[in-house]
């Protein structure tokens, strides 16, 4: 799945002969928009940060016939940005729990594995429910994945902040 996303984004950039707006990213999403939203105190309400600029950029570059491509492109880029943030906060929390010993670290790992299963199940449900209503199943799944990554980041960040006090 990750390979397909990378190929899609790479093909998007190659087909348009466009230089990426942001280093290494042809989607038009600036991950700094997420950081700015978080710094402004929005926290878990930042899932949509940077999406409008991404849509506007992608609409000027994409000339294909898939009416959902721009939204898929931006949701995928946003999801990937949130996954990177989630990975960083998870690692920081794991390191902090390591100071407390092996048991908290192992419990955090188990919790994360359970969360991944929950997220996948929830987002598959969102996709199938959308398909049943003849709506965009892929869009529903991508939005769910992005939103759940942002929500989980906020949860782990709250935990980590609580440990620093």
Automatic annotation (TrEMBL):
Span of domain Lysozyme inhibitor LprI-like N-terminal: 72-148
Stored InterPro entries: LprI-like_N
Annotated Pfam families: LprI
Segment forming the signal sequence: 1-23
Lineage top rank: taxon: Bacteria
Assigned keywords, A-Z: Signal
Designated name of the protein: DUF1311 domain-containing protein
């Amino acid at each position: 799945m990750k390979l397909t996303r990378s190929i899609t984004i790479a093909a998007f950039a190659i087909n348009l002969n466009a230089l990426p707006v942001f280093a290494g990213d042809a989607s038009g999403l600036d991950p700094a928009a997420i950081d700015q939203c978080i710094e402004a105190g929005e926290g878990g309400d930042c899932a949509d940060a940077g999406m409008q600029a991404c849509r506007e950029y992608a609409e000027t570059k994409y000339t294909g016939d898939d009416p959902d491509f721009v939204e898929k492109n931006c949701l995928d880029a946003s999801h990937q940005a949130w996954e990177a943030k989630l990975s960083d906060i998870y690692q920081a929390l794991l390191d902090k729990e390591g100071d407390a010993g092996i048991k908290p670290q192992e419990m955090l790992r188990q919790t994360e594995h359970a969360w991944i299963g929950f997220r996948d199940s929830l987002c598959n449900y969102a996709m199938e429910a959308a398909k049943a209503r003849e709506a965009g199943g892929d869009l529903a799944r991508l939005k769910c994945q992005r939103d759940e990554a942002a929500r989980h980041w906020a949860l782990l960040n709250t935990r980590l902040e609580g440990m620093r006090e």
